[in-house]
Amino acid sequence: MIARALKRATLALLLGLIAGWFVTLRPVLAERDAVGARVHALDQRLEAHRRTSAGLADQRERLGAMRNAIRQHPMRLPDRPDESGLIGRITALTADSAIRLVDIAPGGTGESPRYRHRDITVRMEGPWDALMRLLARIDETTRAVALTGLELDRAKNGDGRRWLTLGLHLRGYWQPGPTDNIATTAGNGDSGWILTAGAVEAHTVAPSLRRDPFHPATRVTRVERRDIAYLGRITRGDAQWALIRDADGQLHRRRTGDPVPGLGRLTRIRPRAITVESAVSDGSDRRHIVRRHSNTDGRGD
């Protein structure tokens, strides 16, 4: 009996202890569950922030590339003048070609509400093709620089060479101070008036600029002969026009100095004939007299 009573008392005590543990641990367990839920929510927020951070890094990289492209764009004005860079570029280009640099004269500085500019005059001597090549290379390797004047004449060197004297009036523009936060970034300075990339080879000079106008070509440029008819002239006050019909039947009204289809340039208008000078480059006298068409009225007007 005593042993059975002790056994019952022990079981009752164990059950009481277990019940007490559950009662005591219930708030802790509830708090643990709540903390677990908060941890899960924080994990989700952390993952979202990581994705956002990765997207921001990609956007920063793209923004940096855009800033660099805008800063180096030829149409964007630099934030400071670059006279030394421009002079150095011209000096280097003339040193690489058959051109002699005569003089470089800095000019005045102008100012407007949005930008400033500085003038530079460069004088050089050389053959025609080398000078045209130099102009092309200056245009392709500089930015914010405009050609405001050009003087071309025969060089007075007296050594028999067919050299020309070229005077360039250049104007460089800049905009002092950034207008926004994309003007300058650390480690990436403004390139001034010189493009950081790109070079021009000799063959990029346009074919129309390769012939020296001071020395006529040896070949004769022949014009295509076409049948035209002089129908008469139109007068209005002191002005007069020649009425011409080309081989295709099209009517043209031309004044003195205008081109005539297939022949050249109209030099004289008379009641019964017109005089046309052919477009030849050998300096010879090629004039054509086109009589008035026989089926028109002979009065001349």
UniProtKB/TrEMBL annotation:
Coiled coil (UniProt feature): none
Region annotated Disordered, chain positions: 278-301
InterPro entries (alphabetical): PilO (IPR007445), Transl_elong_EF1B/ribsomal_bS6 (IPR014717)
GO biological process, one term: type IV pilus-dependent motility
Record-given protein name: Pilus assembly protein PilO
